[in-house]
Amino acid sequence: MSTAPATLVIGATGTTGGRTAVQLIAAGRRVKAASRGATPLPGAEPVRFDWYDPAGFGDALGGADRVYLVPPVGDPDPAAVMLPFLDQARAAGVRRAVLLSSSAIARGGPAVGQVHRALPSLFDEWAVLRPSWFMQNFTGTHAHADSIRNDGAIHTAAGTGRVGFVDADDIAAVAVRALTDDRAPNTDLVLTGPETLSHDEIAALLTEVTGRPVVHRHLTHDAMRDRLAQVLPAEFAAMLAGMDRAIAEGAEDRTTDTVRRLTGRPANGFRAVAERELSV
Fold first, then answer.
1. Backbone dihedral region for residue 162 (phi beyond 0: left; psi -120 to 50: alpha; all else: beta)
2. What CA–CA distance (Å, rounded) separates 252 from 273?
């Protein structure tokens, strides 16, 4: 009896990887759940995976014919470790790759934009997910969520710029379709929620949902860069601060219908996600 090929989910303990793995399992798919600690996930085969340890690539890829790619966090040059892995993945029989990128990073742009540029030449079946900023940044383990819990404040250099914040559940739902549909998207997909919101509006909504005061503290670009550099590599901190400045200039003030087109249902709104994840 043959074993069905697996989907290798990199970052299977993370915000989108975990949700993608769970949704694939629910759909009856065989999943190899990859994380540095090979964390068990019900219904999946846990495998050890570290972008910076190529010795483990072979075991992770064994039996997989498609892969969900979450880049290494905080690395300003992820292509240096991801492209050798993708070469090995293709040689091992992987035929479809779905890459998590960002709406703020175009094909050929900095960081994961270089992986985006290379992907179509490596795989006949592919997709690049370019979600806007995650709603879970305010509810999960992100620095914004930590500062909300600790100080009742969101710190950004985004000014009054608006963002089409997107639910990680919706990102995962699109990832599952991109991984499992008979035809791969073979394009990049910009994912947003149903509306754009400023960080001032996010703070007000969080105050309403939780009953605890939350404010948005407006920082300058340089102050935001220096704040981030306390916990992140300087180059990556500068890139993130630059993204805030782009938000202030209107770069993320848009919505798309991608979630509805690929999943058949509307994208979740921020209030509903905040109530789901923060109401007690």
1. beta
2. 20
Token pair of 235, please? Answer: 């180059």
Provide the whole-model pTM. 0.95
71 DSSP assignment? P
Residue 208 dihedral angles phi and psi, to the nearest 5°: -65, -45
Comparing C-alpha atoms, which of 107, 120, 115, 109 is closest to residue 80? 115
pLDDT tens, residue by residue, 241-253: 999 999 999 999 9
The answer to whether 207 touches 213, Cβ cutoff 8 Å, is yes
Q: How far apart are CA 33 and CA 11, in angstroms?
A: 8
Find, among 249, 250, 69, the residue nearest to 164 by Cα.
250
Rounded Cα distance, 114 and 262, in Å: 25
Find, among 56, 90, 70, 65, the residue nearest to 6 by Cα. 65
Sign of the C-alpha dihedral computed for residues 110, 111, 112 and 115 taken in this order: positive
What pLDDT is stored for residue 1 in this prediction? 35
Q: Which residues pair with 7 in a beta bridge?
A: 31, 66
